[in-house]
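Structure (tokenized):
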């Protein structure tokens, strides 16, 4: 069993209430190989929602209290991102997932590359909050490239 970003299998749960359907991943999901999660929704954020970025580091720094997740309106949504990350980790443990296939660049799911916190479509090396937490707990995280909606 693997976790998969729910938006990659067609769930309209990204910040624009859209998805980034990946037909190959959707086919695997239909076989029962994947468990869909949206950490931002699990953390209590709405669909649609104001875009958010990590300010002051990456997901690991958010988890250690050294960085925050701020939305485009300036609201601190760190607590929701952390709550969603821990909910996704609990789901991974429950279903026995050893791997997660997540969307790239997301402040939750991104791995290796995330938005830089300036809301200017610039990127920095780093992981989103959920990706960082899963990696810290021995779960392999693979990012899937998506086209910007």
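Design, position by position:
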């Amino acid at each position: 069993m693997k976790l998969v970003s729910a938006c990659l299998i067609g769930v309209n749960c990204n910040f624009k209430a859209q998805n980034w359907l990946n037909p190959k991943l959707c086919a695997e999901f239909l076989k029962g190989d994947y468990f869909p999660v949206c950490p931002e929704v699990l953390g209590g954020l709405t669909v649609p929602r104001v875009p958010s970025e990590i300010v002051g580091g990456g997901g690991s720094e958010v988890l250690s209290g050294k960085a925050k997740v701020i939305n485009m309106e300036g609201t601190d949504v760190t607590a929701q991102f952390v709550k969603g990350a821990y909910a996704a980790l609990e789901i991974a443990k429950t279903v026995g997932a050893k791997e997660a296939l997540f969307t790239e660049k997301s402040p939750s799911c991104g791995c290796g590359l995330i938005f830089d916190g300036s809301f200017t479509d610039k990127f920095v090396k780093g992981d989103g909050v959920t990706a960082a937490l899963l990696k810290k707990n021995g779960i392999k995280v693979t990012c899937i490239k998506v086209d910007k909606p």
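Reviewer-requested clarification: Residues 2-144 form one domain. The two ends are 28 Å apart (CA to CA).
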